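Annotators were shown the component list below and the corresponding predicted structure, then asked to write short factual statements about the assembly.
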Amino acid sequence: MSTEKIQQTANEFNTYVRRMKQMHEAIQLIQWDMSALIPKQGVAQRAEVVGMLSGDLFAMQTSDQMGEYLEVLSTPDALELLDPITRASVLDRKEEYERDKSIPPDKFREYVVLTQTAESAWAEAKQNNDFELFRPYLEKIVGIIREFIEIWGYKDNKYDTLLSKYEPGLTVAKLDAIFGGLREKTIELLKRVTEKEQVGRSFLHQYFAKEEQVKYSRYMLEQLGFDFSKGRFDESPHPFAIGLNPNDVRITTFYFDHDITQSLFGTIHEFGHAIYEQNVSHDLVGTFLATGTSMGIHESQSRFWENMIGRSREFWQHHFAGLLEHFPAQFADVNAADFYKAINYVEPSLIRVDADELTYNLHIMLRYEIEKDLINGKIEVKDLPEIWANKIEEYVGVRPEDHATGVLQDIHWSGGAFGYFSSYSLGNIYAAQLENTLKQEIPNYREQVAAGDVTEVLAWLNEKVYKHGKMLTPGQIMTEATGEEINSEYLVAYLEEKFKDIYGI
Amino acid sequence: MSTEKIQQTANEFNTYVRRMKQMHEAIQLIQWDMSALIPKQGVAQRAEVVGMLSGDLFAMQTSDQMGEYLEVLSTPDALELLDPITRASVLDRKEEYERDKSIPPDKFREYVVLTQTAESAWAEAKQNNDFELFRPYLEKIVGIIREFIEIWGYKDNKYDTLLSKYEPGLTVAKLDAIFGGLREKTIELLKRVTEKEQVGRSFLHQYFAKEEQVKYSRYMLEQLGFDFSKGRFDESPHPFAIGLNPNDVRITTFYFDHDITQSLFGTIHEFGHAIYEQNVSHDLVGTFLATGTSMGIHESQSRFWENMIGRSREFWQHHFAGLLEHFPAQFADVNAADFYKAINYVEPSLIRVDADELTYNLHIMLRYEIEKDLINGKIEVKDLPEIWANKIEEYVGVRPEDHATGVLQDIHWSGGAFGYFSSYSLGNIYAAQLENTLKQEIPNYREQVAAGDVTEVLAWLNEKVYKHGKMLTPGQIMTEATGEEINSEYLVAYLEEKFKDIYGI
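Structure shown to annotators:
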């Protein structure tokens, strides 16, 4: 193939991908609107619009045209000739293409229809506390995913194929090692914490007027450095952040009348996702590389900002005064030290999304164990309620009395998102590992935080993580930033230091 | 052609059009977001997304596939076989197809690029009060539109082709007759009004806190019957309403600190557009018939609700108490009668969008006269500033001292929207004509309004106008509802009765 022909094909490919990315942006904007703004009765019709556009995008991704581009551009010689962004874009699209094309279209349609109906079956099952309503759907989903894995192939463990979908390069072998030490140390620490006197936190659950919560959340985003000229802040039942492109990144949050921590830490969490997306290099716009590199790295940023900054003693040394200005009545008799302890209380509980920073990873690890065994056929769907109850009792020390607070609590499996849960704990692990390097490279960063200044922290994260988008893999990000591959020891050390101090162990 | 073949083609055509409509809905949602919500720096990238989708939609509308469908379905025999909605949809698409296909693609592209650049040239010219900055663009636009008219063809008058684009069936001959009497009577009435003592209205221009204006506008929409389960209410610099589909119709308004009338009547005006769109028959969803039948009929509804209801004595008999509750300080020394007069003051002025109910049509008629002569080559672009100044002095009695408040005040021509302005006055004429029938068929409707009840009025308009969408032409709507074609005498009678009373003539 001549160099000219390759260059010409590369140009055509880039135009084609840019067009796909524009369609993707349109779909994402409509979905954002559906989550945050759409009037109730407008949902059904809009869902058809999203379906139509998503179908078009999938058709472009799996078209013969795409196949031809990839054939020309993914030979070693051609890849050599391409500029780095086009090269990465070719490899990124090739992976998608091969995954999508390998599934027979009929099977794929069956899967899409199944997951669509499964979501409402799950919701009904949860509402009625009846696992049997969901069981047949989940069995079919697991069955199809097992088929997909046979098609996609695997080396050591079938579940690796799912893990690496969300976290490129991740395997069961690695994760067993990473999670093993973390689980053991966490359970040990949790036991010691629960023997101690609980911290006081009733002042967090007074009445907080929504209007004032909105103002305070916005103020907090301004303090942290969210760029409102490149984004929005709105309300939705389920908080989320979405990066339509680096110049339009939107955060939502939700307000509870009697719990200030939900909107406060929800907003800071989503800020972490959003600041990542706002800072991805503009050179990547128009490709699918213009976003966070993996779910785990993304979650590392939401967790870093929520927990390591937002739940740190230093942060509230500076920000407690502002909190007091917004809510003078509620915090009249509280000081920064009390507040710091209260927002870091630890308490074994049943629901993952309400879990504290220490027990949270145990919730993830039990899901990981279950998914791994389920995908490998060591356990079956019908046994899940019992296995779930046993595992959470073993790890967290509580046992659910119903399915709604047990095996049916999460939506993820109804959409076929097996392999996803681990991302949450990977995020915590990555975050602690990055923080360990950060404090070596900027030794006074905690003093800066205590002075209300996070600009140097942001600049460091931008340099190490944000600007690269998907140009680096999670492994490359971690190795280049911290000098080693993923290592959960830093999280263990961080948790031990923090909670031994708070609980006086 | 066999009946089966026609039916099969009809089904395919309907699927194809439904897909086009979904794409149209996506584009409209993105444009709504761009007008109301988008962060400043997100605009450029999003404009590319809209451009891509609009290009796709235009390609579908002018495709060979569309041509084949229309060829099969628009024969008299085929049309006979089709259900009424499909038949109307075929004729609707055929008109678009023929208009779009007849223009050579290069010429069309030239026009699109030209109007895109012309808008910023117009904005700059207006800001610098320099007509010469805009003149070359306007000359090119007028030149291309004259070419388009030669391609599209015309019978009696070249300008007819443009008029009927916005108001099917409308001609210069008809409009000269309709506007002639209206202009004469309006100028006469205006002279008598300006001889009288002006009504007091300083209380409308006190400080009105935005937060309270937002609440009051929302309250007004609730009072009028806007269905919030099928729509939204937001803020944007230029108020507008958009019907994405009957189940998702969105209104925006803008708030001025020192002018309560802008948000109040702006909101009621947009309510008129929105309630029309919310009530279009659901049978039409998925076709381009699911919207108002013409710009003029649409404007009749915004004007009816804004002026004939919202600026009526009876409406404020009921609503003044609610206004006082929202703004007790501002209206402490005012009564409903004072308020009614103040919101109906008449004052000759230069700017169309700020004009009162009486002089507004004069602003439109001068634009109509100018466009008609310009398109027919009787005047040229270079002469517009002088002609404009002379005409507004003749009609309204004021003369602009600069271009920004004269010939450069409106954006319309920069986008090539010749033929559009008349819709605004057609709206007033239609509204008065419909109101004349309404008061015969529901003789106590004004008492109902005075009791705060507009449900019967809404039901009547729904039956006569809203539910039909584009299934009836403007002419059919008016003839079926009022028993006659468009007639401006009712507007003249309405204006005379109202303003003679207010100004004591």
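Statements collected:
1. Chain A touches chain B through 31 residues (CB under 8 Å).
2. The first strand of chain A starts at residue 231 and ends at 235.
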